[in-house]
Amino acid sequence: MNEFADAHRLARRTILKGAVAGGLAGLGLGAFPFPAFADADAKEWPADAFKHKSEADTLKALYGKTAEASDKVSLDAPEIAENGAVVPIAVASTLPNITGIAILVLENPNVLAAAYKLPAGTQASVSNRLKMAKTSKVVAVVESGGKLYSVSKEVKVTVGGCGG
Amino acid sequence: MPTNTIRVRAVASGDTTEVQSLIRHPMESGFVKDSKGQLIPAHHIEVLQFEHGGKTVFTALWGPAVSKDPYVKFSFKGGKKGDDIKVSWVDNKGESDSLTAKIQ
Asked: Would an 8 Å CB–CB cutoff place B57 in contact with chain A?
């Protein structure tokens, strides 16, 4: 009688374990993504902001506001870019609480070249290399304390960066 | 999926870590024509992310105007020699790559 009860209990336990495991697998918990360690996600890409042809429309799409000129934003770009396909550009700012930096090339087919998100603790400084189709004003925009500040510089391009 | 496209050098100095990264990627703008006069379709990284200590320290949102084999440099507070820093990117075709490196 005892052996029968034990065997019955063992069988029930096995079936229950199987059911729970099956249930969990059904919920897909085996592949649950942990946001803190998630890789770059294409959903973050602001597709619309990359389509505009004017500074105002681009900033509206990207940040929902417009920028005011500031001497606390620095834009390091060559006077003359020999190769428009690779123009080294750096942006930095001494403004407080900077959460974003964007770089626009006004004569490019679409003016937004790059945008950066800076969490607290990340310095307000970025260096990158951009393509410029032709001589153009380059605008660096910084988001500080929820407002936008910008500075611009004209960069001459001898050989256009669009491969043409 | 492409592999080994990411090179990163992260150096901790005091309480700041400076990160430089070079990614091998064609960054086709979509405006260039091939020898037959056909437009080469746009193929560029859209999002590039750097993580340290379980949190994102920098996100780049890139368009086709970022140069081929893109380079980026930035700095963040925190990070010490031996810590992991993870770099990952995804492009407009859904391709991606990632790399975990040590801060020097």
From this structure: yes
